[in-house]
Design a protein that fits this description.
heterotrimer, A alpha/beta (about 600), B alpha/beta (about 170), C alpha+beta (about 375), B: about 170 residues, Beta Polymerase, domain 2, C: alpha+beta, Cytochrome-c3 Hydrogenase, chain B, 3-stranded antiparallel sheet, globular
Chain lengths: ~600, ~170, ~375
């Protein structure tokens, strides 16, 4: 089968003597280099405006060539770090995995492939839009949907169908283990969420624990910064998800539902062990806490873990404040609330309920009794709305209704008096809580729904979450969004409806609240009862005038120094709604900070 | 193809003392063998057509304190691979060579010795170093060997805070 | 007469890669040979245990410079076997195309490489230029000339660029004209012919003793022992091709088989161009989540394919985590490059030593890893 040799065959190659060489000339290599192919993986290019500094490129880099460098001139904002990737081209293998996984689509590669320098440091390079040699127009390798390395779609959460409205059953069903593992695997561990979360929770760490199926470890991560994880796993405002780097191109990680997965699925022994593992030996110090809402509970837990003796004063029968009396049962089941409060009780915090500070005991007395006092009284009153007819006896407010309903469901109070036709004023989450609570009570009482809503903001700018609007309408709420209330129409001493006008604008040129109406587009929403949910405000009656003089209160909020310490009253710390406005996670964060501040204060005092 | 593999597996199961067998694909199966029976197994497998030794290697099962020796044989006629596995003690890893069955094992065993520290009785050359030069640490493919620590000990790190941006020699950050 | 110790490599024009053989010679006959690998040892197997499943993709092609795609293929195929993932039909065809292009590239280079140890460098220059045309296509398809990182677990990384099949077709036309000139210049060349014919024999029993696969095995056993036929992967069962065999293995036979295999690769590529599905996905996910957290189910698998030098395989162990637990690389030239040299380079002439390396298919990076 082998070839026979031939003396003349090789001579045929001589024809190439006359042909043009196929090689590139030496001078062309540098001066006129051949242009690379359209998806060439050359030096990088990074659009700094798009880049969010998440560092996912550095995480995937198989050669450790990418390090994140802090750029002082860039400012840190929610969802952005002031870091940008720097490449060590001595290490880079030009695999482009960094391009394929870039969450913001800012990192690309160019066709540039020649870089010669005697300066070894010049191979350590921070790419910007101009590439390495100002060659931005020659874009090479870019990511496409085939080479995508992220998982941009979140694992869908199952919800109860519309028949949920017949009871106060929890709407969101929660993740199964399989779903939670899949969802946790999407995380890129950039940690941008941690910066945005008011409590700076260790979000990437607990998501990693879920991914590794180490729920006890996950609970430990949760309780480092948040002792109300059951509550926050259900009704947190999840600012973290807004900052999530995956949300740049896709859907954010379901951080809140993952947190809920942890607290719902960790075996109770592991849970307790993790929670109590933080509690240290008792130290000599007593702290009084006014109000058992999120900030008070958080402060109480962390002070206990530091070893202080803690008494919490609560005016109502059950501790918890907004979490026991505010959030509706279908979002925040009683069991979850009680689990959080129960854990805090187990650490040894002493709750003194049915005791209103200011009436049953004064703040002065607390000052004498304790080494420090934390004030976390929250915004416990509804803000009144002054329109004609609002003084009618059938005008109700959000907070009392929600509290009464919780008590009714606990069996400790009678059913709130709900009329057959009601209207709710307000467009925030609380207004929807009210409307959907009313709707459930109506079904129970009358077997049918007649709940209307009116708010200044139209659908597009409604302050409430989109899911509240969607679910609420699905359940039968009739909304007049973008219609402001003019008066509550009263005939024969009975409310017959709410007159509304179309809103043209809410704020004037100076951005002050000053709604303008189109009086030609106006109608009356029929109702015999009106619920007002247009904001909350604090009740400062326990603070004596003497103290008030020493502190600064701006638009209802107390101005505090670092860690919530009131400047001229060093024994007094404040947090939660009365410092940062209503938001549970803010309260948790304040409580945590204040516990730290109280510890610092008491330690310095003992010296 | 699946049929001929099932036949072979059944045959193997009948003749050899197989602790455990696993179908990996329709052309590949694995058997676990007591460490005393491996030579018999390899001889038998060779006699039924697994005439080529593809590789001998080792897996460090550090959690069980075991080394798992892996012998992969190829049956060219039927197009089948068999993976023969046996566990040996990790603390004093030593085994008996198979060069008398597969002469090609000589260098594979030498490599396993160098990278895992398993000694092979009867293969004197296996004690000699092969790929690594002047190695001064524990065998490197063991799980308790950390290459980062080794590298930090042996090599200097880049020591410069210079970072360039855009045009070379232009902006230094 | 006194024995003299000679070093062939690691820096020697007749040696492919950084490999060394210590030869003890008497006159010009090798009396004892000791292979000395390790100059190129980069610890791939250890590094792979410390990289993500996806991250390893940047590493593995570097095990073999001239034919990097086989590494990507065995790695991807092994992971797909562990994860029990079925990849899209079109991806199979693209993979086959990439693998055959790589085989073309390395065979052409190998054919030209004969010029090195025999002193006919024209052949080598031709081969390098011809291979670059294939690399041009690789660059267009994958974005890189040498380390393609294109075959990924779950399929291939990107869709084929427009018009690439036409370009490939044109290139094949050109090669079909050009490659026969290699025969005219090289294989028929009286001097080369004389150097290769009846020289550097490989008897059948040595094949089985040492464990040589690939061209060496097929040239001595007269059997179609080619994994593409014996255990078809990708879509090799849907294309027609022959496996050249012989029952007399001298150096000339082995080079001739390599020459014939080039045309078989061209034949396969022509069928790929014709039969490849025009539409369709080219990639599926092997795991949920981002690539940082891909997991491969626990298990072990030996994934092997036919490289230009024979059976090339990865033994992959996963413990179900984000990184491999262990990967062992079976370099195709491991048997002949170590035991083969030690036992059968003996009695060879000094000037034939590098020819021996060349025609036996010894590739040092896959021995060293």
């Amino acid at each position: 089968m082998n070839e026979r040799k031939s003396f003349f065959a090789p001579v045929k190659a001589w024809k190439y003597l006359l042909k043009k060489p196929v090689t590139i000339k030496k001078e062309d290599v540098f001066d006129n280099p051949r242009e690379a192919s359209d998806q060439y993986r050359g030096f990088h290019q990074n659009d700094w405006d798009k880049c969010i500094g998440c560092g996912t490129c550095a995480s995937i880099c198989p050669t450790n060539a990418i390090s994140m460098v802090e750029i002082a001139s860039l400012k840190i904002e929610d969802g952005k770090k002031n870091e940008r990737p720097a490449l060590d081209y001595g290490r880079c293998s030009f695999c482009a995995l960094c391009v394929d996984i870039c969450v913001s689509d800012s990192l690309k590669m160019t066709k540039e492939y020649v870089h010669l320098s005697k300066d070894i440091d010049s191979f350590y390079f921070i790419p910007d839009i101009n590439g390495i040699h100002n060659t931005q127009e020659k874009q090479g390798y870019v990511r496409d949907e085939t080479s995508e390395l992220l998982d941009l779609e979140r694992v869908k959460m199952a919800h109860e169908d519309v028949s949920r409205k017949n009871s106060f059953i929890e709407i969101v069903k929660g993740y199964s283990m399989e779903m939670a593992l899949a969802e946790s695997a999407r995380c890129v561990e950039c940690g941008i969420c941690t910066a945005t979360c008011p409590a700076h929770m260790n979000i990437p760490e607990y998501i990693r624990s879920i991914y590794e199926n180490d729920l006890k470890g996950a609970v430990t991560h949760l309780y480092k910064t948040n002792p109300l994880s059951n509550v926050c796993g259900r009704i947190c405002t999840h600012l973290c998800e807004g900052a999530c780097s995956l949300a740049v191109r896709g859907e954010a990680i379901s951080i809140r539902w993952l947190k809920r997965y942890i607290v719902d699925n960790t075996p109770i022994e592991d849970y307790e062990e993790a929670v109590l593992s933080f509690v240290t030996e008792p130290v000599n110090g007593k702290v009084g806490i006014v109000g058992s809402g999120p900030s008070g509970l958080s402060a109480a837990y962390y002070l206990r873990t530091l070893g202080y003796e803690v008494d919490v004063y609560e005016k109502r029968a059950i501790p918890g404040g907004v979490i026991s009396y505010g959030g509706p049962e279908y979002r925040l089941p009683e069991a979850s609330v009680q689990k959080d409060i129960g854990m805090i009780k187990k650490t040894g915090v002493n709750f003194i309920t049915n005791t209103k500070v200011g009436t049953d005991i004064t703040l002065e007395q607390l000052k004498e009794k304790y080494d420090a006092v934390f004030l976390g009284i929250g915004f416990s009153l509804s803000r009144p709305l002054n329109i004609p007819g609002s003084d009618h006896k059938n005008v109700e407010y959000a907070i009392p209704l929600l509290a009464e309903t919780r008590d009714y469901l606990r069996g400790s109070s009678k059913m709130p008096d709900v009329h057959e036709k009601v209207v709710v004023i307000g467009g925030g989450n609380v207004a929807f809580d009210v409307a959907r609570t009313l709707l459930r009570l109506q079904i129970e009482k009358y077997g049918k729904v007649n709940v209307a809503m009116a708010s200044l903001e139209n659908r597009d700018i409604l302050p409430a979450d989109l899911e509240e609007l969607e679910e609420g309408e699905e359940e039968g709420i009739i909304g007049s969004f973008g219609y402001g209330p003019e008066e509550i129409v009263v005939e024969n001493n009975k409310i017959v409806g709410l007159k509304v006008n179309k809103v043209i604008s809410i704020f004037d040129e100076d951005k002050r609240f000053n709604p303008k109406y189109d009086k030609t587009d106006s109608y009356v929403i029929e109702a015999t009862q009106v619920y007002i949910s247009t904001g909350q405000m604090p009740e400062y009656d326990m603070i004596t005038d003497d103290m008030k003089e020493k502190m600064e209160i701006v638009r209802g909020k107390i101005i505090t120094g670092e860690y919530g310490q009131v400047e001229n009253l060093p024994w007094l710390f404040a947090g939660g709604d009365i410092v940062r406005g209503p938001d549970i996670i803010n309260g948790v964060a304040n409580g945590h900070d204040s516990a730290y501040g109280i510890d610092l204060y008491l330690q310095s005092k003992n010296k | 193809m699946m049929n001929s593999m099932n036949n072979i597996m059944k045959q193997v199961d009948d003749v050899l003392n197989v602790l455990n067998k696993e179908v990996i694909s329709n052309r590949q199966f694995a058997i676990d063998i007591n460490k005393g029976d491996v030579h018999q197994a390899l001889t038998y497998l060779k006699s039924i057509g697994f005439t080529q030794l593809s590789i001998i290697t080792c897996v460090d099962l550090i959690a069980d304190n075991k080394f798992q020796l892996i012998y992969i044989l190829n049956n060219w006629e039927l197009g089948l691979f068999v993976i023969v596995r046996t566990d040996i003690d990790r603390d004093n890893p030593s085994y008996v060579t198979v060069v008398n069955i597969f002469p090609g094992a000589k260098y594979y065993e030498r490599e396993v010795h160098e990278f895992f520290g398993v000694t092979f009785e009867g293969n004197d050359s296996s004690f000699k170093p092969l790929l690594l030069e002047i190695w001064d640490d524990i065998p490197p493919l063991r799980k308790d060997f950390d290459p980062q620590v080794y590298s930090d000990r042996k090599f200097e790190k880049r020591d410069s805070d210079k970072i360039y941006r855009s045009k070379i020699g232009g902006v230094k950050l | 007469m006194k024995e003299v110790k000679l070093f062939l490599g690691p820096q020697h024009p007749g040696m492919h890669g950084n490999y060394s053989v210590q030869m003890y010679v008497d006159g010009d006959i090798v009396k004892k040979a000791r292979p000395t690998p390790g100059f190129l040892h980069r610890g791939f197997e250890k590094l792979m245990e410390r990289r993500l499943w996806m991250g390893n993709l940047a590493l593995i092609p570097r095990i073999c410079v001239v034919e990097p795609d086989i590494n990507e293929m065995v790695y991807a195929q092994g992971i797909e076997m562990l994860a029990k993932v079925e990849i899209p039909e079109k991806a199979h065809w693209i993979r086959m195309m990439i693998l055959e292009m790589a085989r073309l590239a390395i065979h052409i280079m190998g054919l030209g490489g004969i010029g090195g140890p025999t002193g006919l460098y024209t052949l080598t220059y031709w081969a390098i230029a011809q291979r670059d045309l294939i690399l041009d296509l690789f660059e267009e398809i994958t974005g890189a000339r040498v380390y393609h990182m294109y075959i990924v677990p779950g399929g291939v990384r990107k869709q084929l660029p427009d018009g690439i099949l036409e370009k490939l077709s044109e290139l094949l036309d050109e090669l079909e004209v050009k490659i026969p000139e290699y025969r005219e210049l090289g294989l028929k060349h009286p001097i080369i012919h004389k150097r290769l014919k009846d020289n550097i024999m490989l008897p059948e029993d040595v094949v089985w003793e040492v464990g040589i696969t690939g061209i060496g095995m097929r040239s001595a056993t007269n059997k179609e022992y080619d994994l593409r036929k014996v255990q078809p992967y990708a879509r090799y069962d849907q294309v027609e091709f022959d496996v050249p065999v012989a029952n007399y293995s001298d150096a000339l036979t082995r080079v001739n088989i390599k020459y014939k295999e080039i045309f078989q690769s061209i034949r396969i590529l022509r069928q790929v161009i014709e039969k490849m599905p025009k539409e369709g996905e080219v990639r599926t996910k092997i795991s949920t989540g981002s690539a940082l957290r891909w997991k491969v189910p626990a298990g072990m698998v030996y994934s092997a394919i036919e490289s230009s030098r024979g059976e090339y395989g990865y033994f992959i162990v996963s413990d179900g985590k984000e990184m491999p637990y262990r990967i062992a690389v079976r370099g195709a030239s491991y048997p002949q490059g170590l035991l083969g040299i030690e036992k059968y380079l003996v009695d060879c002439r000094i000037d034939d030593a590098s020819l021996w390396m060349d025609t036996m298919g010894v590739c040092s990076p896959e021995i060293d890893r």
